[in-house]
């Protein structure tokens, strides 16, 4: 899309908002590509499956893991279709900005920061087996991650669409690599050895 087309699209969208009785209050920085990347990143199917891949491989082997990814992707598409239906019914009414949604975003951000802080400490523990994790250490890392996220959203918001695209590309590359590895393991009849 050229610069002229973008300006024309923005002007047309502003006129549509005005016809509905609304005024654009914030700049629009997301293109269709960055919004699609954001939607993919938010549904998080691959990232969720990838984080529990080890359990899946030991419990269901490579073939079971492969089909788990497919089923999880289909279920996520069902959820995304439902969310798209709601968004089309209330395109500018602010229904998605209700207090329940805001509380959900807060709780989601808190759980992700907690998960990442625990993961960082587990990596440290793998590198240094004598290291003993303390609760206050996880809390400090949690607070640090939260403030980093706040700083990025406040001071670097213009880079968020680019960040969404980069995370999308990374997720697709890792998904492709993992699927190829699983297909290779399934083809050769490989099964993870079970612990007795």
Structure explained in plain terms:
The protein folds into 2 domains: 1-27; 31-187, no CATH class. The protein contains 7 helices and no strands. The chain has helices at residues 3-19, 32-43, 45-51, 53-89, 99-127, 135-155, 160-187. α2 packs across α7 (160-187) and α5 crosses α6. The chain is globular, with a radius of gyration of 21 Å. The termini are far apart. The model has no long low-confidence stretch (mean pLDDT 79).
Task: Please tag this protein with its features.
196 residues; mainly alpha; 2 domains; globular
Biggest sheet statistics: none
Q: Estimate percent helicity.
A: over 70%
Number of strands: 0
Treating each run of at least 4 consecutive H or I residues as one helix, how many helices?
A: 7
Shape: globular
Indicate how many domains the architecture comprises: 2
What number is the mean pLDDT?
Answer: 79
**Low-confidence spans: pLDDT under 50, at least 5 residues?**
none
